[in-house]
Amino acid sequence: MAARPRPASAEAREALREAMERLAAGDQSALEDIYRMTRVKLFGITLRILGDRKEAEDALQDVYINLWQRADRYDPARASPISWLATFARNRAIDRLRTGKVRGGAVGIEEAAPLPDEAPLADALLVDAEQAAQIRECIAGLDERTQTHIRAAFFDGHTYAELAEQADVPLGTMKSWIRRGLQRLRACLEASEMA
Fold first, then answer.
1. CATH architecture of structural domain 8-117
2. Where does the chain hold its CATH 1.10.1740.10 domain(s)?
3. Which residues form the RNA polymerase sigma factor 70 region 4 type domain (predicted)?
4. Of 1.10.10.10, 3.50.30.10, 3.40.190.10, 1.10.150.80, which CATH number belongs to 141-194?
């Protein structure tokens, strides 16, 4: 049996971990890779706390400067790279609040400490991406008719009655086709979780 390809999200997570290791070893090009992979998430965190684009950009610059100086402090046993960097960005933004030189729009220092990042954590996004890739792979394993009907019902919002009318089959037949397709889809997803 051939090895299954790794989902892109697992590759992204591994690429970030490797870039962090390279940076800790003194590889300057790793900082650019880390920046490219994390800037959107980290900027969102700093902007949410500071409430000002310029301040958030300055805080983000501080994050990457300090990361360059302290990359060797990252411990992969304690946190994923993105979680560690997100905490780092949050702390830099809070430090800027404490200086009292932040422009208007920032949250108060007492509000910033518990401020949740309402965007999903990068790890959660990676897991979601892995699951979405597995669903696509399992759907692709279904026959074309079943794929079409499941996509139309669950992704495009068509009712079973609409699909039955379009396919010129009785409603019960359409329900059976989709139910059997969903059973095969479930079996595929369960098998992939055990792999």
1. Orthogonal Bundle (1.10)
2. 8-117
3. 134-185
4. 1.10.10.10
Report pLDDT digits (tens) over 17-52: 899 989 888 888 889 989 988 888 888 888 888 888
**DSSP helix/strand/coil, 107:** coil
Would you call 155 helix, strand, or coil by DSSP?
A: coil
Alpha-carbon gap, residue 139 to 185, rounded angstroms: 6
What is the C-alpha separation between 82 and 146, in angstroms, rounded? 39
146-178 residues labelled b (16+ CB within 10 A) or e (exposed): bebbbebbeeeebebeebbeeeeeeeeebeebb
Which residue from 34, 35, 28, 31 is spatially nearest to 15, judged by alpha carbons?
A: 34
Residue 103's pLDDT is what?
A: 53
User: pLDDT tens for residues 107-125?
Assistant: 554 554 444 444 545 545 4
